[in-house]
């Protein structure tokens, strides 16, 4: 099943994949021919003093060697092209598959695991693929041809291999069976190591601020040792392959010498034939060694192939609905009896009923873990509701074409992600065809135009990876501008003004209210000042809507809102009066 899935990635490199084994057959044929020609030179030329025959056969030897070299070089080239192309396509297929994943699919695998599968695992499969189309074809064919030539030149010694080969097959099969589970564990351990590295690099400023380098080194060493231990266990088992192969090779050589000498004494074999049998014996045993090495590689690659196949066969749990409606009429948002669970049986949201009219500004407040971000993620179908329906523009979100829905529901997430490039390139993620005037208008609403225009290169200023050359507040404002360039019907701001001062926050809200008519604004915040002028404020607690009302209404009747308000405006003493 795994092979069937992965072979789809060969595609345009099918020709090289087919030609390589054929070239290997040609190379092996010439290599097998050379010992036979040498035997003829010794027995019919050198032994009889026939110079003309010796020269003629020597020319044939040179020709056979030249052809063998030509076939070998051509096969190496086509094998490299086929394996590199296969790996390229596999990376393409894997990456594009991941793009179709929903958030829940990505949560299932984890980011670090997906990175390992796109890098280390594909490299292992690429090496195995190259060995399959080259060495795995070459070695068995050489083995078969060499056995046939031994049978022709010295049938009395063929029985040696009838004893040696089954022993080899049984031992290698046993080692594969024992080693495979350790290789599986090792590659899963790579996920943990990548996670440590990724987490450390993303949070390197925090690590250095808290002087936790030594602690992070210990975490890294622990993950690295886990990989080391699994590989050592696997390699200890596989390390017996080489000594076993060499013992078998020397044993067969001794047996061939002993039996061959007897056959020469009784006249059933010539000296040239014995010399050719020695060469064929080396070919047979070297083929077995290469097959053994190939089996080790395949054992390693098998675990990687299964991990890659697991991603490629995963069905995205969110239907993008290609034929769905592409037009969103307005910014009305409605939740009806909505429940949601990340894990089955553990609801994060319960019995959510909500009706938001187009053009309204809605604030959402609540303690950490109350379900605020989860609630808004259902509107843009970052996740799908477990039960109930979510509507935008009076239509179930699942009935829209997913791209069209997300083009009309812009989300500014908690983590403000910018990409390496220029400011304008980052902003055009919202609209790739946006003019400079449109960019400037969006930046003015987001209160980002002043700091952009103060920079030397303005909108063409360079953005470092992750936007690290901008402050947190600047990144937030750029992300708001980027979302506005989508010209959405609904704008969701998930705590996306937390890093700006209250005056700038107020300026952004006023600009959104006055400058973008008909846009539904949903603002999640920890600050009441960010939502107090909203048309409705939703108070959430433990995955439920606790209360809905205006600032004045909630201040009169909701104790949690009162406590939060007085804590933020008058200090902790007032908070105690409302506890």
TrEMBL record:
Residues 333-567 form the ABC transporter domain. Keywords: ATP-binding, Cell membrane, Membrane, Nucleotide-binding, Transmembrane, Transmembrane helix, Transport. Residues 18-299 form the ABC transmembrane type-1 domain. InterPro entries: AAA+_ATPase, ABC1_TM_dom, ABC1_TM_sf, ABC_transporter-like_ATP-bd, ABC_transporter-like_CS, P-loop_NTPase, Type_1_exporter. GO terms for molecular function: ABC-type oligopeptide transporter activity; ATP binding; ATP hydrolysis activity. It is found in: Cell membrane. Its main location: membrane. GO terms for cellular component: plasma membrane. The chain crosses the membrane at residues 21-42, 54-74, 132-151, 157-177, 245-264, 284-301. It is a multi-pass membrane protein. This is ABC transporter ATP-binding protein/permease. It comes from Candidatus Ornithospirochaeta avicola. The lineage of its organism: Bacteria, Pseudomonadati, Spirochaetota, Spirochaetia, Spirochaetales.
């Amino acid at each position: 099943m795994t092979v069937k899935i992965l072979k789809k990635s060969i595609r345009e490199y099918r020709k090289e994949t087919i030609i390589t084994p054929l070239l290997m057959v040609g190379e092996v044929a010439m290599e097998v021919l050379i010992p036979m020609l040498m035997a003829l030179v010794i027995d019919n030329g050198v032994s009889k003093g026939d110079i003309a025959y010796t020269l003629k056969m020597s020319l044939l030897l040179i020709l056979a060697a030249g052809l063998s070299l030509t076939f070998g070089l051509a096969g190496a080239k086509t094998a490299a092209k086929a394996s590199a192309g296969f790996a390229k396509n596999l990376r393409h297929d894997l990456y594009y598959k991941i793009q179709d994943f929903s958030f829940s699919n990505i949560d299932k695998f984890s980011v670090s695991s997906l990175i390992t599968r796109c890098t280390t695992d594909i490299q292992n499969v690429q090496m195995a693929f190259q060995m399959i189309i080259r060495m795995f074809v070459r070695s068995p064919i050489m083995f078969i041809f060499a056995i046939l030539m031994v049978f022709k030149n010295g049938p009395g010694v063929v029985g040696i291999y009838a004893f040696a080969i089954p022993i080899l097959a049984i031992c290698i099969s046993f080692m594969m069976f024992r080693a495979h589970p350790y290789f599986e564990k090792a590659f899963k351990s790579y996920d943990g190591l990548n996670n440590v590295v990724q987490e450390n690099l993303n949070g390197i400023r925090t690590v250095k601020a808290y002087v936790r380098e030594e602690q992070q080194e210990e975490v890294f060493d622990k993950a690295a040792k886990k990989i080391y231990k699994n590989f050592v266990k696997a390699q200890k088992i596989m390390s017996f392959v080489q000594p076993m192969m060499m013992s078998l090779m020397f044993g067969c050589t001794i047996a061939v010498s002993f039996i061959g000498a007897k056959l020469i004494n009784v006249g059933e074999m010539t000296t040239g034939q014995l010399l050719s049998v020695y060469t064929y014996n080396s070919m047979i045993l070297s083929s077995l060694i290469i097959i053994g090495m190939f089996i080790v590689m395949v054992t390693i690659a098998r675990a990687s192939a299964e991990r890659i196949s697991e991603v490629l066969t995963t069905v995205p749990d969110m239907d993008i609905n290609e034929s769905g409606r592409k037009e969103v009429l307005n910014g009305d948002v409605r939740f009806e009896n909505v429940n949601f669970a990340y894990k089955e049986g553990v609801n994060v949201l319960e019995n959510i009923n909500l009706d938001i009219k187009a053009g309204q500004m809605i604030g959402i407040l609540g303690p950490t873990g109350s379900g605020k971000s989860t609630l808004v993620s259902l509107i843009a179908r970052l996740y799908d509701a477990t039960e109930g329906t979510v509507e935008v523009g009076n239509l179930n979100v699942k009935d829209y074409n997913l791209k069209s829905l997300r083009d009309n529901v812009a989300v500014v997430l908690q983590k403000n992600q910018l990409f390496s490039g220029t400011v304008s390139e980052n902003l055009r993620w919202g609209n790739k065809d946006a003019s400079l005037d449109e960019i400037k208008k969006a930046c003015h609403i987001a209160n980002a135009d002043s700091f952009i225009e103060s920079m030397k290169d303005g909108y063409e200023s360079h953005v470092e990876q992750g936007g690290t050359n901008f402050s947190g507040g600047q990144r937030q404002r750029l992300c708001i501008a980027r979302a506005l360039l989508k010209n959405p019907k609904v704008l969701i701001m998930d705590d996306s003004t937390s890093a700006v001062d209250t005056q700038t926050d107020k300026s952004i809200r006023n600009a959104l209210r006055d400058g973008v008519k008909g846009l539904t604004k949903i603002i999640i915040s920890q600050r009441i000042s960010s939502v107090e002028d909203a048309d409705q404020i939703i108070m959430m607690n433990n995955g439920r809507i606790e209360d809905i009302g205006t600032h004045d209404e909630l201040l009169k009747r909701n104790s949690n809102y009162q406590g939060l308000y007085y804590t933020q405006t008058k200090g902790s003493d007032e908070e105690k009066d409302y506890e």
